[in-house]
# Entry
Amino acid sequence: MESISRRHVIIDTDAKNEADDQFAIVHALLSPSLDVRGLIAAHFGTSRALDRRRSDCRRHQGLEMIT
# Structure
């Protein structure tokens, strides 16, 4: 069986802005060709909104978050 080469990626997203952001995160995490090394919850709106985005990212994955 041939080994799949996985590309290392870091996802930078405003995960609370639109539904397609959450879909893209999950798609990348489940992709056999991507090795997601981290998620960055990009700032969009107030600092309170940024905290909610971090929370969303943590729910989607088990990786350490950069804060």
User: Anything to note?
Assistant: The first strand starts at residue 7 and ends at 13. Residues 7-60 form one domain. Strands lie at 7-13, 34-41. The chain has one domain: 7-60.
